Batch of 3 targets.
Target 1
Amino acid sequence: MKKFILCLIIIFQAGLIAFADDLIYKYPANILDVEFPQYSTVSCKFNQTKTIPGSGAFVNSGGDFTFDIKNGAVFETLYPFKSTTAYTSDKRISDIILAVSKKDYSYINKNFDVFYLKNNQNWQLALKPKNDSKIKTVMESIVIYGNKYIEKLEINTVKSGSTKINFTECK
């Protein structure tokens, strides 16, 4: 009987987590009303989990993240192997990062449906590509969680699975 009750509790909690993740889409927003921190530069530690579609497998990595409003975002991965990814050459990703950080309302309104939820100092911003946007061919959604700094970023793509990035020690 205890195992049965424990199973029910686990199933219920999993349902609440899934519901909480989808809750953001119940709050459409005008990008002009979104309170989003603006930075000229920021650096953080990051850890990332990338799911590999169709396999159930995932890859964990982590390292140092820097963002400069003039140069874009750079992920310097330190494990499981060293590499550097700069989102200055990938035009679509760079455009999205710069549009959000600069509050480029025209780019965001043209390409995304915007959802926003704020509770005290915590906030969530979700961007879903509009049906007529070219971005819809590669991206399903971006969800950004934060407080003073961005704390978590979820990127869901059409073919490449999902990527969840947690940021810590931001300054």
Target 2
Amino acid sequence: MAKIPSVVDSLSGALSPRVVLALLALLAVAFIGASQVQATKQSAAPWLNPVVTPDEVNGMVWVRANLAPRTVFATGIFEGELLMGKARMEGTLGGDWAIVPDVITRMSDVQYRIFGAKDSKEAWTTAHTYNASYVWVPNRQTFEGYEWKVPAAVFDNATYFQKVYDRGILRIYRVNEKAA
């Protein structure tokens, strides 16, 4: 029985070992690159998706109609910019970074001790540290300076926070002056 030559057999005689190695390396790079596309798309998604949603624009309209200007909100960076620019509110983050005192500490506290708090009391205490009267909590990833994260589920504790707005993906909580 005659052996049917394979493609590799026919190419290996025609191609030098150097060319074969180059082709194998190119295939390896293509395979590795293709396998990283999904991970890259996933890590870039928060930056490529809208950083403020239509539900949040509606929430900003509610804020402007129901709260006094310069009310301080605990927010992520982009949410704070929306409230400052469109509703004349103040945020714990955003604005003129050159004049924000202790901006690195502030970003860390807002990221990890309000929106990443281990419990309601930690979020409440930290919100008070920065004179926040309200907390802006979208049900999506937010960016407070270090990483994109979904806010911790610590705000539905009436001892420390009162929900005043809940529409679409946005909830707004009033920070209790004293623990109830």
Target 3
Amino acid sequence: MRTAQFDVDNTEVQMIMVIKLQQLKRESLNSLTYQSLESYLSEDLFRKHPPRSLHEAAAEIISVNADDLVKFLARKALEDGKRQSLSDFSDLIGG
């Protein structure tokens, strides 16, 4: 018998993510996207502590705060920027 996985691909987890996304957008991060929240959960929060049940996943998602999310996104932007060459930014620099 196959056990359920409570990651960002689980439909119940996705529903909780949408609810949390709406809360964060309403309270402080109005430009936050679903993809950003999904990245934070899968690349940081769930990687460190994979949930073993739906209620564990729900509790972790509900406990996400804006500060931790912004820190993660800033760190991710820096890491992504390091991998790109200067020519990738030519449209921003005007070259």
